[in-house]
Amino acid sequence: MPDRTVFFVSDGTGITAETFGNSILAQFPAKFRHVRRPFIDSADKAQTVIEEINATAMQEGKRPIVFITVVNDEARTRIETQCNAQVMDMFRTFVEPLETELGVKSNHRVGRFSDVAKSQEYTDRIEAINFSLAHDDGQSSRNLAQADVILVGVSRSGKTPTSLYLAMQHGIKAANYPLIPEDFERGAIPSSLAPYKRKCFGLTIDADRLSQIRNERRPGSKYASLLNCRYEIAEAEKMMKRESISWLSSTHKSIEEIATTILRDIRPDRLIY
Amino acid sequence: MPDRTVFFVSDGTGITAETFGNSILAQFPAKFRHVRRPFIDSADKAQTVIEEINATAMQEGKRPIVFITVVNDEARTRIETQCNAQVMDMFRTFVEPLETELGVKSNHRVGRFSDVAKSQEYTDRIEAINFSLAHDDGQSSRNLAQADVILVGVSRSGKTPTSLYLAMQHGIKAANYPLIPEDFERGAIPSSLAPYKRKCFGLTIDADRLSQIRNERRPGSKYASLLNCRYEIAEAEKMMKRESISWLSSTHKSIEEIATTILRDIRPDRLIY
Fold first, then answer.
1. How confident is the model at residue A239, as a pLDDT?
2. A28/B104 CB distance under 8 A
3. What is the mean pLDDT of chain B?
4. What fold characterizes domain A4-102?
C-alpha cells in the first residue's frame, strides 16, 4: 500500500513534471502511487482532474501531492485553489522571479517540445539515432569519420543502450564496436578503429556482473562463464590502457550517468552550447 | 550574442536540473548560453563553480542564472550565498515543504539515478531496449506476443525512434513493422501482425514531409516521389481505418509527444504505476 498518491498534471506530455517530481520524491523513503495526467490545457480539463484529485484525498484520507506544469492561467489557478492537495507549481515558483530578473514577461509557451519537430536540434537527434543504429555492434565501418564517439568494450558491457541514449538525448552520433577474443589474440583494436582512436571511449564491467548478464542470454555457456568473463575483461582493460583510450566501469552506473561522463571526457564542448 | 548565461549545477548527471531549467527558460524569448557542470558533490568542487559563475557575471555585466540540484548542504549553501547570480534551487524550494507535508525528513539521497543500475525498473528498461532493437523494422516476428505495442506505418514515418524512446524512457517493449506496397496490394496487414491487432498503433505523416525525408535518403527515387508518398500514405490510412487501428500523425510531433499519446491510448495502465 503506497503512502501517498502523486499526480503529475501537465498541458504537454508531462515529462518535465514527472522528471522533476521524481527527483524530489527520490529524497523520501515513502512509497508513492503515480498518476499521470498529460495534455490538461483548458479549465474544463483541469476541472475533471481536480475532481479526481479531491476524490482521491477523500478515499485515502491523505492529501495527494500534485506536481503541475500548466501555463494556462485559469487552469493553473483552479488547480492551485480548488485541490485538497499539496500542489507544487514549478512555473509560478520559478518563472515569475525570472521575469523580474530578465526584465521581460514570459511568453507562456506551452511545453518545451512545442514546434520542436521542426527544429534543427530535433532533426540532429533523429539523424544521430539513425547513425547509432547503423553503427551498432560494429555493423558498419562506413562513415566512422562522422562519428562523434565510438564506444568499445566486450560484449554486454552496456555499449548499445549507451550509444542510443547519447543519440536520442544529446544528438551525439555514437557508434559502438565490440572487443572480441580475436582482437585480444591479435593484441590490437579492430583495424577499422585505428584511425579514430581519439574518438574511442571504453566501457568495462565487473566480471561477476558480466557473467550474470551473459548467463541470462546463454545459460551455462563458455561465453558466460566467470572464467571467460574475467579473461575478456582483463584483456580489454589491458588493451584500452595500451591504446590510451579513456574508459569507465558500467557496473554501478545507469546509462544516463555513463553518457554524462562520456560527454564530459570526450566532447566537453557539448557541455556548453 | 546570447542574452544571458545559464549554469546547470548538479551533484549527479545534471539531467534533472537541465530538463527542469529548460522548461522554465522556454517561457522566455531570450537566447541563453548553456553551461553544464555535473558531479559537483563537494564544497571544494562547488567553490570552483562559484568562481566560474562570478567571473562570468563580471565579464558579461549580467548575473547568470543558475539551476541547481545539489543535496550536499555545504556545497548548496555556498552556491546560494556566494554567487552573483539568480540561483534557482529546486530542492530547497520543494523538498522542504514536502518534508512538512509527509511528516518525515528527506533522506537527501543524491540524484534519482543512484543505485538505479540495480533496480528492477532499470533492468526492465534495458530489456525493453534490446527487445525493441531486435524487433525494429519488422526484423523478427518471434516473441511478438511479448510486445507491449507494435508500431505500424509506411517507411520513414517515425516508427524506429518512437519505439526506442518508448523502450528507453518507459520500459515499453515496442516492436515496429513497416507497411509496404505488397501489403497494400494484398489489402491486409502483414499476417504475422494479425493476432496482435489490438496492440498495434499506427503512425502516419504528411506526404510533403515524407517525400522530403525520403529524398534525403534516396534523392529523385520513385520511393521518395510525392506521388508515391501520397499513394502509400492514403493506402496505409485506409488500412488502419479498416483494421480499427488507432493512429496519429507524426508530422508536427516530437517523439516525446508521440510516445505519450501512444501510452495514453494503448497502455493507459502505464500512466499509473
1. 95
2. yes
3. 87
4. Rossmann fold (3.40.50)
